[in-house]
Amino acid sequence: MAAVKKQPDDYVIRLCESPLEVGASAWNELLAAQDQPTPFMRHEYLAALHASRSATADTGWQPSFVTLWRGDELHGACAFYVKDHSYGEYVFDWAWANAYEQHGLAYYPKGLVAVPFTPVPGSRLLARDDAARETLARGLPALCEKLELSSLHLLFLSPADVRACEAAGLMARHTVQFHWENQGWDSFDAFLAGLSQDKRKKIRQERRKVAEAGVTFRALRGAQIGDREWDFFYRCYDRTYREHGNPPYLRRDFFRRMAADMGGNWVLFLAQRNGRDVACSLVAVSDESAQPAVAYGRYWGAIERVDSLHFEACYYQPLQWCIEHGVQRFEGGAQGEHKMARALMPVKTHSAHWLAHPSFADAVERFLAREGEGIEHYLEHLEARSPFRREKG
């Protein structure tokens, strides 16, 4: 762990080449005190990415975790990576990289504050208070300058993170995801009753196709997911990525570590047909102490083709489970307007950016202003297409 620079108010920033250099209890204690904690920022999750070699310098994710100290006390921390590509981020800056290249400048390496391969909004700048959070936000561009990085990007931020980045003068960017919120429904039928007739009819047709194909589901959580089920899940996960022409980001060992260290944060929806496993979806859930309870759609795959099976595995089974288990929100992940037909509504997500090159910073700031206007119009357009039943009046 190397000290980098003394900050105002006697803070000292130190860098760690591995999350294992930061104590798990101290990190998780900080996380629990944030405005939007998620299981993906837990020490165990980040350590598993590193230890399984899913996110390392060899895969283009060089960890250099930032910690903020006052004396011997940890006052802040964030998962900081030096990147030599933009894969696995879900906030796209390929055009910026191309513009740099066209002008004979190097965009990579760049600095990134994010959870690798995980487009889930939540706290990124873990801090004891607003002063420590703002110190982190102000210190990160200086760190990037010291490391001779082209830029800094903080992705899928919480409201407190956004305020700290605004105070630090970073540029704001917005994207759109689709989330489901339980509006007081106590059953899946009650949920369907709240939808417009055409959406309700479509969902029932899709569910009926899966049932008539002889497919049944089991929901397994934590210790109920054995090695056999995890192996089958990974077979499906690997196949899905390779069908799209890419190897999977996460290695099998990552999920072994999840089963051992964070098993209670995972629910596997396992589809069977004629006594044979044919598909599955994996959903993460917030820690039991978290309020409101949240589920996060993550991965899916199938070894047999069944009409509408994707929708059943990835949306209807998880939503039914959420209703039955008192989970307030289901986050569907990055992109996908088709999710609105399943009652996942548009939500604005937030990132913050800094570029070292003044001319490119000015150009990106103008671009983001135009893009932001487009996002607002897009949200208005989506809201007008709500799948929910309109009350006559």
TrEMBL record:
<dbReference type="GO" id="GO:0016740">
    <property type="term" value="F:transferase activity"/>
</dbReference>
<dbReference type="InterPro" id="IPR007434">
    <property type="entry name" value="FemAB-like"/>
</dbReference>
<protein>
    <submittedName>
        <fullName>N-acetyltransferase</fullName>
    </submittedName>
</protein>
<dbReference type="Pfam" id="PF04339">
    <property type="entry name" value="FemAB_like"/>
</dbReference>
<keyword id="KW-0808">Transferase</keyword>
<dbReference type="InterPro" id="IPR016181">
    <property type="entry name" value="Acyl_CoA_acyltransferase"/>
</dbReference>
